Amino acid sequence: MKLQHSLGGLENVGPVSTERNVFVCEWEKRIFGIHMAMMSLSNHLPDRPDNLEFDSEWTWADLRKGAEAMNPFEYFKYRYYEKWLGGISGFIISEGYITAEELEDRASKYLEGGPPAVAGQAGPEVDGQILKYMQFGDSPKSDVEKTPRFAEKDRVRIRDNHVTDHTKLPGHLRNKIGTVVDVSDGTYSYFQHTGPDGIGDAMPVYTVMFEQDELWGELGEPNTRVYADLFEAYLDVAE
């Protein structure tokens, strides 16, 4: 997580939103549906239908990379699903499904007179694949065997790996010391390799516990602990 995705411990960032509705505007439901359909039909899935017009890999990692690539000052201007819309739009343009000019033209027509006509229906096979994916998801658990480097009660220091595109390591945990309280059963991979950040291939995952004063110092809430599930690539022995 880059700065705009990891605000833990930062001061003067404004009031915290207490909005409880998953969808605030009707159009947000459509964006969520588009994203789920793209993940359901991603070409990395072994059981996807054949002969689809959509022939790309799209995962949560791709969606997050699109958001994290935004300038932090731009990031805070947009609503949650507006960031999704920007990431999806940039992806379908980069993959050649539509040009930026065509997207701009369709958006203008939408604003002038409502939504454009739907080109056609996907069919029962595609609908079934989407419903199946929404029910069972796409497990990151791997069959690769690897001996865990750490065990329960080990003291570990969290690395501060260089981030280029995307990371799963919260910024407020970097360089902090915690205790391993659980070791995952098996190994887990990530949807794509993150370069110097270090994840991608299958590896053990650990639940690490942090005392509040290690993270927040005097500003922390007394008798509070923070637990985080972290890939092995993010852990070092605490000296």
CATH superfamily of the largest domain: Nitrile hydratase, beta subunit
Mean residue pLDDT? 87
Strand order of the largest sheet: 6-5-3-2-7
Helix fraction bin: 25-40%
Query: How many individual β-strands?
Result: 7
Classification by helices and strands: alpha+beta
Biggest β-sheet: count, sense, barrel?
A: 5 strands, antiparallel
Radius of gyration: 21 Å
Number of domains: 2
> Count the helices. How many?
7
Strand content: 5-15%
Low-confidence stretches: none
Per CATH, what is the topology of the largest domain? Cyclin A, domain 1
What is the class of the largest domain in the CATH system? Mainly Alpha
From the 3D coordinates, which CATH architecture of the largest domain would you assign?
Answer: Orthogonal Bundle
Taken from the alpha-carbon principal axes, the silhouette is: globular
Can you write the helix and strand succession as a string? Answer: HHHHHHEEEEEHEE
Q: Give the end-to-end Cα distance, rounded to a whole number of Å.
A: 25 Å
Describe this structure in words.
With 239 residues, the protein is of the alpha+beta class. The chain folds into 2 domains: 3-138, Orthogonal Bundle (Cyclin A, domain 1); 142-237, SH3 type barrels. It has 7 helices and 7 strands, in the order H-H-H-H-H-H-E-E-E-E-E-H-E-E. It has a 5-stranded antiparallel sheet. A two-stranded antiparallel sheet has the order 1-4. Helix 1 crosses helix 4 and helix 2 (60-68) packs across helix 4. The chain is globular. It starts with 25 loop residues before the first helix and ends with a strand. The model has no long low-confidence stretch (mean pLDDT 87). It is an enzyme of class 4 (lyase).
